[in-house]
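thought: fold this chain, then report.
action: predict
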Amino acid sequence: MMKRNIVLVGMMGSGKSHIGRKLAQRLKWQFVDTDRRLERAVGTTIAEFYNEAGETIFREREINILHQVSRYHEAVISFGGNFPMNVDTYRILHRNGVIVALSSEPYRVEERVGRHIGKRPTVDYDDLHNFVRTMMKQWEDVYPYCDFTIDTTRGGASYIVDTIVEAIHKEKYSLPSEIGEERCMNINKIAVLTSGGDAPGMNAAIRGVTRYAIYKGLSVEGIVRGYGGLLDEDIKPLDRRSVGEIIQRGGTFLRTARCLEFIEPEVQKKAAEFLRSRQIDALVVIGGDGSMKGAEALSRLGIPTVVIPGTIDGDMVGTEYTVGFDTAVNTVLDSVNKIRDTAYSHDRVAVIEVMGRHAGFIALYSGMASGAEIVLTPEHPVDFQAVCSHLLESHSMNKMSSIIVVAEGAATGTEVVDYIKEHTYLQANLTVLGYVQRGGSPSAYDSIMAGRFAQKAVDVLLEGKYNCVVGSVGRQVVATPYEEADKIRFVFDEGLYNLVHQLGR
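observation:
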């Protein structure tokens, strides 16, 4: 019978945390302590939270933790001695885990619990002797629900770990990986931020990361305004509801900004220290090449990072597609189609300047889709004379209007219009689309890819394959290490570029 996790239960002082860590090291699995997990979630100690919130709220948070960790894969999970164990609890844990109860003699439990006076809620430290024996009687009713019960009174940690592993194999519970195989680090809490220029679909990516991470048993925090938010310590917890109703919205509800000072090593160290202070195990960055550089810097400082490509320009390493590109092309297409109506009505040459400082993907694809006569991109030097000759040839064949789509990195729209007016009889008008290309609801394709990229980002973190960029390669979603990402790019299609001009005559 395949079981994905090993669950350790038992009353406080039975050795669950110590044995659990040793067992996790033996299996090369992650170790999860539900008490520590709860403390990280609420930002205070178990005892303080119990006293401040009350037992009802405390138990509710424990049950939330139960549902989260029960979905883990390849984890040794240690449950706090106060955790309410009942038939429903065990039913949940049994779905994916082998339940091992740890017991111990009363004197050993008294000794262990007595070392931490005041740190365990519900413990009667004034009459510890009778408290322990009452608790042990209650646990005698629990042990039959477990797969194994192992006494930890005698024998070292290694001996007890061996006993657990042997018992599991003896009962023919198969473990998901061979002992000794390298596994992932313990990822419990992640953060997500958006950086650089906004792109349609960023909200869909935030939603995907948050909800899928929660589904996998992680907690999530959102950093406001990108890397600048790390420096300002502007962070907030995210849950399923906080990312509701954002998938259809443009922009990013976490806001974004360019943080030029983040290139400084001391600034990067400050950001890494803040993440550690928040007990954040990994960071998901949504953005372009500049954002990826920031993620790489943090990874060198020991912060696991994963980048989701989010930029309308499409010019990012590690992927053949970036979230936001499809929406931007469709936005330009819609605008060009409207401008064409006016250009035709007035016998004009319409010059439309689009974004693309270093790459002409938006210009090329929107130009092809809209039937533009000429497309100007940074990949090809602009021959203004050839542009004019093309226009004059077309108009000599009674063409009533023309469309030129120019990427900002090839030439300014003003330069194109001025040259046409100076060297031809044609009337040219300029439209600079600007930020309209970044806004608007994401297309279906961008929303879908954002979700797929988000899933991959969380999965690779849990698999221990962090410090990489998620991307689309050959229509497959893959994760590529930063040092190898430069080998993968969205290639400028020369055949499509030639076809645009062939069809535009």
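thought: worth noting. Residues 5-170 form a domain with the Rossmann fold fold (CATH 3.40.50.300).
final: tokens above.
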